[in-house]
Design a protein that fits this description.
Blueprint lengths: L10 E5 L6 E5 L40 E4 L4 E4 L2 E2 H7 L2 H10 L5 H13 L5 H8 L7 H12 L12 H26 L13 H10 L10 H13 L7 H10 L5 H13 L6 H9 L8 H9 L18 H17 L3 H14 L2 H5 L7 H10 L7 H21 L29
Antiparallel strand pairs: 1-2, 3-4, 4-5
Helix pairs in contact: 1-8, 2-17, 4-6, 5-6, 5-10, 6-7, 6-17, 7-8, 8-13, 8-17, 9-10, 9-17, 10-17, 11-16, 13-16
Bound molecules: s-citryldethia Coenzyme A (SDX).
């Protein structure tokens, strides 16, 4: 538990040069309560001062005990456990329990949780029919966004968001069914027929099976690929107040059901600056023919022609710890499926960029998306599926944040303000008088 060093007398004093008045703002967890700024006024009937932070770059929106990141030191911990440990020693369902409940599960708890997930895992026929009418060119993330919202129609108890028991039911269903929906999108796009669930397999093995099985043909999932997928789901499971988790919290604060809230999270994740970057990385690597072309490619990033996708992060100003773990995972997978020269290009690109002043001066390092696509590609998946895999892993993080928020009785609907820069009040102009 992070030590609360707040001393009740900690305060920020500020003088408003417009009035000469001095104000004292209490400091808690190295933050000031933004609503206290409203006391700062020129005239008594003023609305009062607000803070301006368009991308929420320097704004704390909640208190959370789920995930801790130290961007300067490159630290990521799930409920206090370092990501390196959770990815190498845990299974995805174990980490789901940890993120949702705060502690690692006992053997009995894990058995019960796995049984709940298996019992909730099936192929909803209405959602299969929904996929059957999707245009095959529709991005599989857009299919997932639509299917997650539609999934709410499978159940009649989805709106009781203030009930812990109801929230638990929805959480189980969404963890169980998100991989099924992902597999539906993959199979629809590749004309592979309906999904066949096999809950005798592990969570990750069933996920791969639902995508890779072919009618009438047994499909053995290689243990190294199952382990790699399970580790990737863990590595993507949560990441504090990222863009998509923020979307889930903002949308969920209206007390909408969680299927619609996580659909909003999936839409945010879809973007190339966020989860869509893993697809963009592979598309970027496909533009580099050989290791010899890396210097010229990096120059095109430095002169602003393009971004080095999979590099940079709003929080990490050091190596993203997940990138290192995924880089090691990639080597294991390629030992199984055979070497991919794109890995050599990625390693050369990373080495050159990290040594280049343009990137080091901007503290740009590889992030979670830099190597992950290479592994998914080695498993035989096309680049448009990569962000869908990110969403399958991140589902539990979105749900843990949603659950934490809905359990907090002080939660209010998110509704920021603006600086109005438009016209002053003016009179209507008849069409005949408009120029
Ligand atoms: C994820 O928030 C999370 O936790 C996200 C995530 C999670 O687990 O949820 O970690 C997952 O989204 C990882 C990030 C994946 N995105 C990419 O890999 C896309 C490429 N990266 C960038 O677009 C960028 O680094 C962001 C979006 C990740 C962060 O952008 P910021 O913090 O808004 O930084 P910025 O765009 O203001 O850039 C600062 C400077 C700029 O240069 P100057 O204007 O100062 O000259 O750095 C440059 C940028 O041009 N820059 C890059 C760059 N990223 C930033 N230049 C080249 N290549 C890049 N990738």
């Amino acid at each position: 538990m992070s030590e609360d060093t707040t001393n009740n007398s900690d305060a920020l004093s500020a003088i408003d040069s417009r009035t000469g008045k001095e104000y004292t703002l209490p400091i808690e967890h190295d933050t000031i309560p933004a609503t206290k700024l409203r006391e700062i006024k020129v005239n008594d009937d003023d609305f009062g001062m607000l803070s301006y932070d368009p991308a929420l770059k320097n704004t704390v929106t909640c208190k959370s005990s789920i995930c801790f990141i130290d961007g300067e030191k490159g630290i990521l911990e799930y409920r206090g456990y370092p990501i390196q440990e959770t990815a190498s020693k845990g299974t995805y369902l174990e980490i789901c329990w940890l993120l949702l409940n705060g502690e690692l599960p006992t053997a009995a708890e894990l058995d019960m949780f796995q049984a709940e997930i298996s019992a909730a895992t099936y192929a909803p026929q209405d959602i299969q029919k929904l996929h059957d009418v999707f245009n095959k060119n529709l991005h599989p993330m857009a299919m997932l966004e639509s299917a997650l919202a539609a999934l709410g129609g499978e159940f009649d108890d989805i709106d009781d968001v203030l009930s812990a028991e109801s929230r638990h039911q929805q959480i189980i269903r969404l963890i169980a069914l998100t991989p099924v929906l992902a597999a539906m999108g993959y199979r629809h796009r590749n004309d592979l027929g309906p999904v066949e669930v096999n809950t005798d397999l592990s969570y990750s093995s069933n996920f791969l099976h639902m995508m890779l099985s072919r009618k009438g043909r047994e499909h053995e999932i290689h243990p190294a690929l199952e382990k790699a997928m399970d580790a990737l789901l863990i590595l993507h499971a949560d990441h504090e107040q990222n863009c998509s988790a923020n979307a889930v919290r903002a949308v969920g604060s209206s007390r909408v059901n969680p299927y619609s809230a996580v659909s909003a999270g999936a839409s945010a994740l879809h973007g190339p600056l966020h989860g869509g970057a893993n697809q963009a990385v592979l598309e970027m690597l496909n533009q580099i023919d050989s290791v010899e072309d890396v210097p010229a490619f990096l120059e095109s990033c430095k002169n602003g022609e393009r971004r080095l996708m999979g590099f940079g992060h709003r929080v990490y100003k050091n190596y993203d710890p997940r990138a290192k773990v995924i880089g090691e995972l990639a080597a294991n997978v390629f030992d199984v499926v055979g070497h991919n020269p794109k890995l050599d290009i990625a390693i050369a690109l990373e080495k050159a960029a990290v040594a280049d002043e343009y990137f080091s001066s901007r503290k740009l390092f590889p992030n979670v998306d830099f190597y992950s696509g290479l592994i998914y590609s080695a498993m035989g998946f096309d680049a448009r599926m990569f962000t869908v895999f990110f969403a399958v892993g991140r589902m539990v993080g979105w749900l843990a944040h949603w659950n934490e928020m809905m359990a907090d009785s002080s939660t209010k609907i998110v509704r920021p303000r603006q600086i109005y820069t438009g016209y002053e009040r003016r009179d209507w102009v008849e069409a005949s008088d408009r120029k």
